[in-house]
Amino acid sequence: MNTNFIPATAVIREIIRENDTISTFRLELINKRVPFSFRSGQFCMLSVPHCGEAAISISSAPNALPLFDLSIRNAGELTNAMHQMKAGEQVGIRGPFGTPFPMADFANSDMLFVAGGIGLAPLKSVIDHCLFQSGLEADAVANITLLYGSRSPSEVAFTTAISSWKEQGIDCRLTVDAGDDSWHANVGLVTELLQKELITKNTKSLICGPPVMIRFVIARLTEMGCASHDIFTTLERHMKCGMGTCGHCHLDGKLVCVDGPVFSLEQLQTMDVMELGT
Amino acid sequence: MIDLQEMILEKDRLIPLLRKLKKESRLIAPVTNKHGDTLLSEINNIDRDTIDLDRQPQNSLKSFFLPQQEILAHYSVDTTGYNFTAPEAAKETIYFGVRSCDLTALLYMDLIFSKPAKDASYYDRRNRSVIITLGCNDPFANCFCEATNSGPYLDYGYDLQFIDLGSSYYVAAGRRKGADLLNKWDYFFRTVEEEDQKIRYQLFLEARGRFNRNIQVSHACHKLQEEEVAETIWEKLAGRCYDCGGCAYVCPTCTCFSVDDMAIDDSHGTRIRSWDACTSSGFTRMAGNHNPTDRTRHALKQRFLHKLKYDYQKHGKASCTGCGRCVDICFGGVDITTFIEMFTRDAS
Ligand SMILES: Cc1cc2nc3c(=O)[nH]c(=O)nc-3n(C[C@H](O)[C@H](O)[C@H](O)COP(=O)(O)OP(=O)(O)OC[C@H]3O[C@@H](n4cnc5c(N)ncnc54)[C@H](O)[C@@H]3O)c2cc1C
Ligand code: SF4
Ligand code: FES
Q1: From the CA of A274, how far away is ligand 1's center (Å)?
Q2: pLDDT over threshold 80, residue A137
Q3: Which 3-state string (H, E, C) describes chain A?
Q4: Is the sign of the CA dihedral B345, B223, B278, B122 positive or negative?
Q5: Is A237 in the pocket of ligand 3 (CB under 6 A)?
């Protein structure tokens, strides 16, 4: 890991447009000082020339290295500058940082992914990793279900990945807050897709999306009997260093960049966390 | 292990010794400036600068190890690509006349900047530093270092500790670099007599009896492990916090920072680290104006809980060193002692 704020350089190999505001940038490091490896759920600090840094989750699975993906929503200064960049141009990368999802605990589980908007980015890494491991008896998960909510049909992102997941047998259920003539899937909030028959004793739920979505999904899963150690989410906070020194990502005595961003509900219940409405 | 050494320096030999030290490295000491303020600052001319060992320096060591603004890296964007280079190396520096609380704060910073990996810029300065402390015989008006276990004298952590015995200093080495200095300049010193030890002990007892303020720091730390702080306390404190950041700036253990890139021209720039304060409204604000902290109620919650609850949990010690600077600076009167007094008196 970098002990300072000097990033390694990465080249943008490919840009995949996911929707009007989200694109996936496929990167490759060219001057890394130490071998780069990561686990699903971890994030990087991305440097864009003259814009500083932003925390971005790695949205591809580790097996795709040396290429890795950052899926970025155009949300402000840095992310907008990133959206102006072209294949072949260079960005800076520090990391990976943060705790990953506990993949080893997911063997033989029924995996339920619940995502909203750009929140699918960190979960995409997990889904791709589950698929990569599906040939390995001991580590494979039993089932994968994805519930994915977007605001409108034109905002549905990651459609290429979703069609490939469907072909590989993943039960993908999409919903939008407001539909139009072109939309034939569900309309309504993602919580409405959370039906009893999706939950087994073996279900591990992974949630990522806006804070209100996280809160309502957790409430519904708990109501349906999911245990707090089987529910995981990844939190977003203002971050400046990614390595536990700047203090910006504080969360009731923890630092989201090192103690998270992945937390189980069991961990969060002992803390004072905005996403749980406490 | 180093062989601990203790020696006596007669006061008339202090300036000659400092003159020697200054020849070898940068020397920082409490100096009274032309406005009459005493600040830890670089000695330019040992005969003309007024070294003031009687008053508390207004600044702590913090800015020398974590400057208010510093360059973390230079970058360039051109046809060869997007490249970063490290900043200039730090200078060897000797710090003289550092108070016990401020050295304790530096030891805390050592911890903060070593996890999960050593912060390159911080440790570059730290590794090139020698710290000579001065025990406090007469604690200042707002000090409560006895309650935070960070003074008036120290048992460890310093390279050298000076104790003022009246006409001489009792000098003890606590670390290798301090012992090396004593050995190198031994002809300035004389050996310790039994009488010196007696005086030192007597002064220590007297100093401990001279604190004006009795702040229940450890009681607050224990109580925080057991109990939530009443919302009304947070609200009262927040209502009188004007978001000036003064407490965090003067505090030797407030080390939160921000990092931003500053363009110099189209193809060059610097990555800058600057002090930040958890009490300020932008500290936790995210894109789209989401903010997980409600400043109107909780402006000071993180600052006090971090020092008294979380650090106590993690390190077994609060990270307030009782230096009293926030008491002096807070014009809303909501410094850490106000909080401790409100919370320890609250019966609920
Ligand atoms: C662990 C983690 C993983 C993330 N993963 C992704 C991802 O995969 N894809 C994605 O599109 N976004 C992700 N984000 C959010 C992303 O970091 C912000 O959208 C981005 O920092 C916005 O920067 P900006 O300059 O474009 O926005 P502006 O609104 O112009 O700037 C926001 C300001 O807040 C600061 N800031 C620091 N942390 C954050 C934060 N978390 N959110 C917003 N602002 C922040 C920025 O440095 C800047 O000063 C993630 C955030 C975290 C904490
Ligand atoms: S909180 Fe106040 S008294 Fe404690 S170390 Fe910081 S400035 Fe000094
Ligand atoms: S991002 Fe700096 S401490 Fe977490």
Answers
A1: 17
A2: no
A3: CCCCCCCEEEEEEEEEECCCCEEEEEEEECCCCCCCCCCCCCEEEEEECCCEEEEEEECCCHHHCCEEEEEEECCCHHHHHHHCCCCCCEEEEEEEECECCCHHHHCCCEEEEEEEHHHHHHHHHHHHHHHHHCCCCCCCCCEEEEEEEECCHHHCCCHHHHHHHHHCCCEEEEEECCCCCCCCCEECCHHHHCCHHHCCCCEEEEEECCHHHHHHHHHHHHHCCCCHHHEEEECCCCCCCCCCCCCCCEECCEEHHHHCEEEEHHHHCCCCCHHHCC
A4: positive
A5: no
- The DSSP H or E segment spanning B173 is strand B168-173
Question: Other CB atoms closer than 10 Å to residue A21's CB: what's the count?
Answer: 17
**The pLDDT value given to residue B241:** 92
- The total of other beta-carbon atoms located within 10 Å of residue A127's CB is 27
Span A103-234: which CATH code? 3.40.50.80
CATH number, domain A8-97: 2.40.30.10
Instruction: Report CB contact under 8 Å: A253, B292.
Output: no
Cβ A3–B117 below 8 Å, yes or no?
A: yes
Q: Give me the tens of pLDDT residue by residue for chain B, a chain 348 residues long.
A: 445 699 999 999 999 999 999 999 999 999 999 999 999 999 999 999 999 999 999 999 999 999 999 999 999 999 889 999 999 999 999 999 999 999 999 999 999 999 878 899 999 999 999 999 999 999 999 999 999 999 899 999 999 999 999 999 999 999 999 999 999 999 999 999 999 999 999 999 999 999 988 999 999 999 999 999 999 999 999 999 998 999 999 999 999 999 999 999 999 999 999 999 999 888 999 877 788 888 888 889 999 999 999 999 999 999 999 999 999 999 999 999 999 999 998 775
The segment(s) of chain A belonging to CATH 3.40.50.80 are: 103-234
Helix, strand or coil for residue B282?
coil
Q: In a mutational test of the pocket of ligand 3, which residue from A249, A259, A263 has the highest number of ligand atoms less than 8 Å from its CB? A: A249
Say which residues have a Cβ less than 8 Å from residue B282's Cβ, sequence separation at least 6. Answer: none
Cβ neighbours of residue A51 under 8 Å, at least 6 residues apart? A77, A78, A81, A82, B261
Question: Does ligand 3 come within 6 angstroms of the Cβ of A5?
Answer: no
Asked if B287 lies within 8 A of A4 by C-beta distance, the reply is: no
Measured between beta carbons, the chain B residues lying within 8 angstroms of A274 are 292
Using the atom order of ligand 2, give the atom closest to the CA of residue B307.
1
The predicted complex's ipTM stands at 0.91
Residue B277 Cβ < 6 Å to ligand 2? no
Q: What is the CA radius of gyration of chain B?
A: 22
